[in-house]
Amino acid sequence: MTGIRTTFALLIGFLLPVSLQAAPSAAEPIELEWCLDDFPNRHHYPEHGNPYGPTVDFMQELAKRAGVQLRFSPSTPFARCLRMMEQGKTDVMTSLNASTERAQYMHLIPYDHARPEVILLRQESPDIWSVAELSHLNLMVIRGYTYNADILNIIARHQQTIEVDSLDSGLNMLLLNRADALLAPVQSSRNLIQTNPRYHGQFKTASLAIQLAEPRYVHIGLSKASPNARLEKQLRLAVESMIADDLVHRYFHALPGAPAQ
């Protein structure tokens, strides 16, 4: 009997470490990949090293509050990130305008008020103050950009609209006098003008400010095709807690010269 007990004890002693080693750690947090590129004044993505900037700080705090780990994608163009979100090949994006199309393949979580787009003119062009004045101009809009519904109504009624492939194409056409005005996102156009010497001092913002009927928001997107799509409520609650703690203002509005996108 003693021999049997000894053999049993040795067997348990051998199997216990193996079973403990094989057991997965229940405390390991889920990892979410954030698909992003270089977006000056929001999240810089250097050629070597990790991204940094206010959006990075915001997302790291969000991950901490949601109990997940954040992983940065390689620097990826915005349009490609959208395709990857649709295919479930990445998890989250930031700084997104809402649209019916995007809502089909991602959960959209609002976290900040968005600024209306601006109308850019050549520096020497007459200023415009009204939609009636705008109606006489050749107005460029960016193909694929998600404009607010109020702005889409203006575009739909406009008689002389030109679609351009990108913000850079629009600025170049404006510079070469091939159109009169460009309807552009504030921060992206500011970044592009600052980084391209050809554009320095060439443009101005029209005095016409487009008033939105309803508030517009910037969103975090969580891919519905992601294996982690079930975390929507978790992320939404974390965002709400950060808004309640005034962290959105701290990250995006308390910095000089860096208005919210």
UniProtKB/TrEMBL annotation:
<comment type="similarity">
    <text>Belongs to the bacterial solute-binding protein 3 family.</text>
</comment>
<dbReference type="Pfam" id="PF00497">
    <property type="entry name" value="SBP_bac_3"/>
</dbReference>
<keyword id="KW-0732">Signal</keyword>
<protein>
    <submittedName>
        <fullName>Polar amino acid transport system substrate-binding protein</fullName>
    </submittedName>
</protein>
<dbReference type="InterPro" id="IPR001638">
    <property type="entry name" value="Solute-binding_3/MltF_N"/>
</dbReference>
<feature type="signal peptide">
    <location>
        <begin position="1"/>
        <end position="22"/>
    </location>
</feature>
<feature type="domain" description="Solute-binding protein family 3/N-terminal">
    <location>
        <begin position="31"/>
        <end position="254"/>
    </location>
</feature>
